[in-house]
Amino acid sequence: ATHKAVLIATAQAWDEEMRQRIARHQADRLQRVPGMTTVEEPLNLAQAISSHSQADTLLVVDCLTLWLTHCLMPFEPNTPPQTSPPGLENQKFMPNRPVVLDHQAQIAMLLEAIVQAPGPMVLVGNEIGLGVIPMGREVRAFVDALGVLNQSVAQVCQRVTLMAAGLPLTLKDSP
């Protein structure tokens, strides 16, 4: 049987450094996994998973942290500020794109898509709550929201691996 692989990339290149980072990742992937298809989807992650998951297709989602950032704080540099939700007054919001206020609903849809996916999936995310407590209220709220997302995703996944210093630490491994 032929196996396929699809990367669902959530990153967006808002500046030159990020464009270079994405280009490095693309070149590395092309060399290491030349047959992997890439789908760029910064916001509609549940829909992308549902659309691309098949029994013979490995989905790699990279990454949940950037996806949550886009859900909570969609912005575009150098654009005039739009109406902002309370607590996010200093963000610059993308024109002609609705601000996703209900990230809880987005997370619920993501969890359902993960559970319903017929094929294997690797979800990449960051654990940013291990360091110092951020000073800003909005940053603390994001760290908390990411922690809840990570816990929720871990509950519906069979395996959870924490990577530290390039070494895997198995946190969960169910059959």
Indicate the overall shape: globular
Secondary structure class reads alpha/beta
- Averaging pLDDT over every residue, what do you get? 85
Strand order of the largest sheet: 2-1-3-4
Radius of gyration, whole Å: 17 Å
- Helix and strand element order: EHEHEHHEHEE
Using DSSP, what is the number of strands? 6
Number of helices: 5
Strand content is 15-25%
Distance between the termini: 23 Å
Q: Flag low-confidence runs.
A: 79-101
- Largest sheet, strands/sense/barrel: 4 strands, parallel
Helix-residue proportion: 25-40%
Task: Explain the overall architecture.
With 175 residues, the protein is of the alpha/beta class. The chain contains 5 helices and 6 strands; from the N terminus they run βαβαβααβαββ.
List the helices and strands and how they pair.
Elements: E1 4-9, H1 16-32, E2 37-40, H2 45-52, E3 57-62, H3 64-72, H4 103-116, E4 121-124, H5 137-156, E5 159-164, E6 167-173
Parallel strand pairs: 1-2, 1-3, 3-4
Antiparallel strand pairs: 5-6
Helix pairs in contact: 2-4, 3-5, 4-5
Keywords:
175 residues, alpha/beta, four-stranded parallel β-sheet
Quick description:
With 175 residues, the chain is an alpha/beta fold. It is built from 5 helices and 6 strands.
